[in-house]
Write a structure and sequence with these properties.
- The longest helix has 10 residues.
- Strand 3 and strand 4 form a beta hairpin.
- The protein is globular.
- The strands form 4 sheets. It has a 4-stranded antiparallel β-sheet, with no helix packed on it. It has a 3-stranded antiparallel β-sheet with strand order 5-10-12. A 3-stranded antiparallel β-sheet has the order 6-7-11.
- The chain has one domain.
- It starts with 18 loop residues before the first strand and ends in a 19-residue tail after the last strand.
- The protein has about 220 residues and is an alpha+beta fold.
- It is about 15% helix and about 25% strand.
Length: about 220
């Protein structure tokens, strides 16, 4: 039997109610710089649900990269912004490559947080999830220390080329043709899926439907 699977190239966003918490909170002027920026999402499998590649095998098991990554950028690191339009479903940004994280390590900056229990034996986590779904959240961290007194823009962006093209309203064929046409122009190198891609701005996140007292607090 053949099954058709969706991946990051088949979506251009998600319900903002999936955002449980962000740190720092929007418009906060004195966020603690000792913590990494983060976003928490529910359902807890959302960051990996549309990943278009297989897990990477390793000595301690497999690691799966998320299809989304969190960026925290200074204004001077954003070379340009483009609003959504008729042929571009999402807003996009152009970013200096030096300001971007290493996507080969993106798996290390995404995890699921569980409250109320410290450890699980065997398949116990499956029954615990079924009985306590509200105790699980996905957490994406941005691997960047924030400078005190510095303003940042937080963006949730696709980590794979297919997701970037979908957000820009481009197909794989269109992207290939455009790349061929631009080879004679000055290059603006960047990492696939992050240099210029759709950005879901976190400063308009919906209020949490599961927590009303944690938004903008210390990372948990």
């Amino acid at each position: 039997m053949q099954l058709q699977l969706y991946d990051a190239g088949d979506v251009v966003g998600f319900d903002s109610r999936a955002v449980v918490r962000v740190f720092p909170a929007p418009n906060v002027a004195d966020a603690e710089p000792d913590y990494f920026p983060l976003i928490e999402l529910d359902p807890p499998d959302l960051p990996w649900r549309l990943t278009p590649e297989a897990p990477i095998s390793g000595p301690s098991g497999g690691t799966l990269k998320p299809w989304l990554v969190l960026l925290a950028l200074r204004r001077d690191e954003i070379a340009g912004e483009q609003p959504p339009g008729e042929h571009c479903p999402l807003p996009s940004i152009s970013v200096a490559p030096a300001a971007l994280p290493d996507l080969s390590q993106s798996w290390a900056w995404a995890h699921v947080s569980v409250s109320g229990k410290q450890a699980f034996a065997g398949d116990e986590i499956k029954s615990y999830l079924a009985q306590n779904p509200d105790r699980f959240v996905a957490r994406l961290l941005c691997p960047r220390r924030l400078r005190p007194g510095t303003a940042y823009v937080a963006c949730l962006v696709p980590a794979f080329k297919r997701g970037r093209l979908a957000g820009l309203g481009q197909s794989q064929a269109e992207a290939g043709a455009r790349a061929a046409a631009e080879r004679s122009r000055p290059a603006r190198a960047g990492r696939v899926g992050a240099r210029r891609g759709p950005a879901a701005r976190l400063d308009a996140a919906a209020p949490s439907r599961r927590r009303s007292d944690g938004a903008g607090g210390r990372p948990g």
